[in-house]
Amino acid sequence: MKQKPVRRKPGITGKVWWPWVKRAATTAFFLLVAWLLVTQARAVEWREVFATVANFPLPSLLGAVVLALLSLTLYSSFDLLGRHYTGHSLRTPTVMRVTFISYVFNLNLGSLVGGVALRYRLYSRLGLGTGTITRVMSFSMLSNWMGYLLLAGVIFGFHTPALPPGWKIGSGGLQILGFVLLAISLVYLLLCALSPQRNFTLRAHELSLPSLRLAALQLCMGAANWLLMGGVVYMLLQQKIAFPTVVGVLLVAAVAGVITHVPAGLGVLEAVFVVLLSHQLPSHEILAALLVYRSIYYLAPLTLAAALYLVAETRAKKLAPPGRKRRAT
Description:
The chain is built from 13 helices and 2 strands. The chain is mostly helical. It has one domain. It is globular, with a radius of gyration of 23 Å. It starts with 17 loop residues before the first helix and ends in a 10-residue tail after the last helix.
């Protein structure tokens, strides 16, 4: 007796569950964002923040907000360098929106979520292939950290912050580190200008050295963004501490988790600023300024980035270029 073949209903496939998985993952992601916003808001000492804001001179507070907007706008332009580097054709507002969302989520959730995962998701929905996305992302990150190396080299080497005793690296060691970082950034420029070999392979992706002009623009934009971030803190400290010192401490904070022990119970940023600047300014003023800094530079942009990401998800098909199905590699 022959067994009758099982007939599947029209339109039902083995992957019918996949859209539900994607919807569940998207819902879980937005629940995570909502949880993050609530927990961050509850963790902030709002009374202290409001009291500090109320006592801030209006020019200092407005100056900090303007510099934060300039920094976020500048970083949102980093992927435009990647567009020039790869030659893809997404429009400028679209590229800047993707970069802004990725950067803000990177600040709040870490590089794997913001710097990598969101960039891949958003750009792939807009029609870019994996190879192109990897090159854009790598070029943007390289711009940020090469700018850091250049600025840290100058600050650490020629305006070395005084470090307290007991740190694993003293002021002299930090100055030497500064010269090393400056040398690395200059070697990168020399390679871009003079290297006969222009193409390299990294994890099956081909990377090319940019022109000297583009590399110099990378370093300038990256360094300028770190200066703007330092400027935000400088304004919130009401200009009571020299600007190069504030920038130097901010740069130290970026690597403090690697080179020194940070007291428990404080974030890296807060701990480094309190340790290095408490002899120049009362600790409560420093912490109050940094609370406002986190509100201006982290929390408020995260709310906007979450809204933009939701809009980008719902409008992904409309924003995709005509040749989306033929993804570039």
